Amino acid sequence: MSRKKRKNVNKLLPALVVGLLALLVAMTAIYLIYIGKFPQKDLNKTPQTASTPSATATVSDTTGTVTENVPAEETHKAKQPAESTNPDELLVSWKNPASFISKAAMGDGSIKKTFKDGNIRYWRLVSNKVTSGYKPSYNLAFGSPEMYSELEGVTTFRGNNYRTAPSWGKADVKEKKLEIVWTHDIGAVSGVGSYWPGAGWTGQPLLAHWSPDVRKVMNINNDLKEKDLVEVIYPVFDGHVYFLDMETGKESRPRMNIGFSVKGTGMVDPRGYPLFYTGQGLNENDGRKGTFKYRIFDLIQQKEIFSLPGNDPVAFRQWGANDSSALLNRYTDTLINCGENGLIYKAKLNTKFNKEAGTISINPTVTKYRYKSSYSSDQGIENSPAVYRNLMYFADNGGTIQCLDINKLEPVWIYRSGDDTDSSITLEETDEGVFLYTANEIDKRGKSGAKANCNIRKINALTGELVWQKDYSCVYQNYINGGALATPVLGKNDISDIVIFNVALTGSTSNGTLVALDKKTGEEVWKRQLDAYSWSSPVDFLSEDGKTYMLFCDFKGYMHLIDPKTGEDLDKISVGGNVEASPSVYNNMAVVGTYAKKIYGVKIK
Length: 605
Ligand SMILES: [Ca+2]
Ligand SMILES: [Ca+2]
Description:
Layout: H1 3-35, H2 87-90, E1 102-105, E2 111-115, E3 118-126, E4 129-131, E5 152-154, E6 167-168, E7 170-171, E8 178-185, E9 188-191, E10 194-197, E11 206-209, H3 212-217, E12 230-235, E13 240-245, E14 256-257, E15 267-268, E16 275-278, E17 284-285, E18 288-289, E19 293-298, E20 303-309, E21 327-329, E22 334-338, E23 344-348, E24 352-354, E25 359-361, E26 365-373, E27 386-388, E28 391-395, E29 400-405, E30 410-416, E31 426-430, E32 433-439, E33 441-442, E34 451-460, E35 466-475, E36 482-483, E37 489-490, E38 498-504, E39 512-518, E40 524-530, E41 539-543, E42 548-553, E43 558-563, E44 568-574, E45 584-586, E46 589-594, E47 598-604
Parallel strand pairs: 6-45, 7-41
Antiparallel strand pairs: 1-2, 2-3, 3-4, 3-26, 5-11, 8-47, 9-10, 11-12, 12-13, 13-14, 15-16, 16-19, 17-18, 19-20, 21-22, 22-23, 23-26, 24-25, 27-28, 28-29, 29-30, 31-32, 32-34, 33-36, 34-35, 37-38, 38-39, 39-40, 41-42, 42-43, 43-44, 45-46, 46-47
This protein binds calcium ion (2 copies).
Keywords: Membrane, Transmembrane, Transmembrane helix
Transmembrane segments: 12-34
InterPro entries: PQQ_b-propeller_rpt, PQQ_rpt_dom, Quino_amine_DH_bsu, Quinoprotein_ADH-like_sf, WD40/YVTN_repeat-like_dom_sf
């Protein structure tokens, strides 16, 4: 061996030792993995918004049909704070191994997702055809609730995608009094064995502060074209959509005749486009029968330009009413709507709005999400969906609370609420996480004269885990259900530590309870017994000096001005009859329709 060669061997020795050591470590690791003792990262504890490893979802075939490889959830890191308006950046990953046990492609194009205590079978239909491998052609996600509406006002039920803004602006509160400053007469309809006067549940009037250029191209009365108008847009029981000047209560343009009752809440396009959307509550009007439709109106010409059939041939339930108030994603021109037929509609509207020419058109492409929950066969959604980014939350008549990835149309988690849930879910994002608040009613569990608990819950919105639950005993009654029909006030600003629920028929068929619960613990902060129950959702609004006030209406026809820190009345006025609808507030004005067959304009003084 030459010196040179020997030198090379000496050089190689340390490398050989390192290599052998690495081999030893690798073999030990393989052995540990084999015996199952290799420490792995606990994926269950990985925060949902953080980047999680991409993996193929477990696909087990439970039916003997051909197993389809379902692609893994892509990993999306929340790169931007919620102020972002780019859906690509807003998408959150929900890849959490704990959220489901297995996922199986079924023979009929559905997918069965099995969770800890139940399962969901779901179908995605594009142009009414079941598609087994749905892939969205663009990303859909919502921004922060403050970013929901470009148009000032209340443009959907509870104002935003968290369902937490039933009011807009700030009120100048001095006397802490309410005063009716106008009323506007509306009608009633009769169904078989039923009579529906005025406005119904959820019935929140829409308030739109139009931009001057949009106002000028619409068919608003000439004398109001130059006025800085806040317009009340209100579909009600008598089958008309009323348009009123919020200041005076006078018609701002001719009413539109739908011909059949609306009892839910409509939606005005949050982009400030002259488009109005509404479902239908009944399909009969004083003996005349019709079909159920979900309608979209052009507010320039004031005419219907598109509709979805309520009795949808692809739906599992042939009841076509629609009380749910839709959401519109203004970044992607996408409408999200839930039907009482059990379907979720995701429609790319393909809107063309030419402000200068005064023309607007849509050409929707409709995708549908249909599902069956193992919790209950009851189909139909009456609450208004809430959305955190790409995660949508809703509950159904069978008591399934569902978190649905609205981008991929895939259920993320389900929760058994135990009964029909029509109260809309409210959302909150905090430093501790994203949470939802929900409450059910006493319906499917009921027997006449029996009692059951209305369950109020705080749930981790990303994992579906219960944070706390608070129960209130309610009386069952079949035609007017007890429990929560109202959507809660989610405290903000000076009442940010509480959430306020309105629970009907606690104790008897005529009374109720208004309760403020501590958001962290679920403990009662205050409780008020009501001698008149209510289905109306309480409304919080902020004063110019930073104090939160609350309006609350009941079945005896009172509107209360309440201090939400104590639950006590500051003032109380009569609005003529049962209030199932819930008020909207714009600065110092509140508007609501009641069973007295009137819309009321109430000044907060
Ligand atoms: Ca229901
Ligand atoms: Ca019910």
